[in-house]
Amino acid sequence: MFMHFRPALAALILMTLITGVAYPLSVTAVAQLAFADQANGSLVRDAAGQVRGSNLLAQPFAGSEWFQPRPSAGDYATVASGASNLAPSNPELAEKVREFASQWGGTAERPVPIELVTTSGSGLDPHLSVDAARFQAARVAAARGVPQERLNDLIDALKVTPLVGPAVVNVLALNLALADNPRPDPDE
């Protein structure tokens, strides 16, 4: 009887070693050698070497002196990432959009960019369009006491044009650039 199970057991052990050990180790080795930064989470560090976040994940910022990312259906938690799954015809989505637009102070003359009032598919989108970042520039400039043109220049310096789609700005990179350039001294 064992002679019938022996080939099946040998195949199971062999395939377990190949697909459960050798393949994952080889993929990890290639990722660490060729793409170490991406394989380790695209972590962003400040001047002191402290991890401040990831280029791949949005995070909230408290205070009007910071640029804000898109709203998150999962409150920026990576475990609960995901969309709200509300259809465009759902009245709850329309109410949330109105609520977010009201929080941003949107008007008919100055409409709020769509990504500031809707969540992304993952709820963790780290980028904003250039228009959405500029929409916030007046508020951030007023809170920091800096000219809005300076922030617009910073947005332009940090914008990235992907292979497909419009130019975007990473919110974490933008806020870290602001943290590296403290507010001007009012006595100067």
From TrEMBL:
It comes from Stutzerimonas zhaodongensis. It is found in: Cell membrane. GO terms for cellular component: plasma membrane. Belongs to the KdpC family. NCBIfam families: kdpC, PRK00315.1. Keywords: ATP-binding, Cell membrane, Hydrolase, Ion transport, Membrane, Nucleotide-binding, Potassium, Potassium transport, Transmembrane, Transmembrane helix, Transport. It holds the Pfam family KdpC. The system is composed of three essential subunits: KdpA, KdpB and KdpC. The keyword Transmembrane helix applies. The keyword Glycoprotein does not apply. One of its GO terms (molecular function) is ATP binding. InterPro entries: KdpC. It is a single-pass membrane protein. This is Potassium-transporting ATPase KdpC subunit.
